[in-house]
What we know:
alpha/beta; 5 helices; 6-stranded mixed β-sheet; two-stranded antiparallel ribbon
Amino acid sequence: PAGEPITIHSEILGEDRTVFVALPASYRGSGTERYPVLYLTDAQWNFEQARASSQYLARNQIIPEMIVVGVVNRDRTRDLYATRADFRHGDRVIPFPTSGNADQFLEFVAKELIPWTEKTYRTSELRVLAGHSAGGNFALHAIRLKPDLFQAVMVASPWLAWDDRKELNQLLPFV
């Protein structure tokens, strides 16, 4: 991805995490302008597209220029689903023994990643969370649990069938 890879140690997760950071072209130099931040799950697959799209939309004055921070997720079902579950399709069961730590990953984002980003870069108060598939499920979970943490979410194809639609069922009264 066309972003700077940075390793952040997480006490909450008990491991190092790789994040990619892309700054807007106007960020360079000694400016004082502050920028919104787009936080992205699954940076290993989605960072380049998110970075390029945000730059394109900003160039065309559709959105403001923004900093893009993408987290690499090595174990997506662990990080992005809130419940421990296996996938069932008819008689077939696909085990996901590490699933169900989205709350811990959300704590990492809230208490370590966002503060690190805000300390390191000139950020504004606007935070956006974006996720696709399992990441979309996580983004919906995050906005439900911590509605003040992000001012907006972008969700693409969330897999809401996970664990007998538990997240979907919890979201319905929320909307």
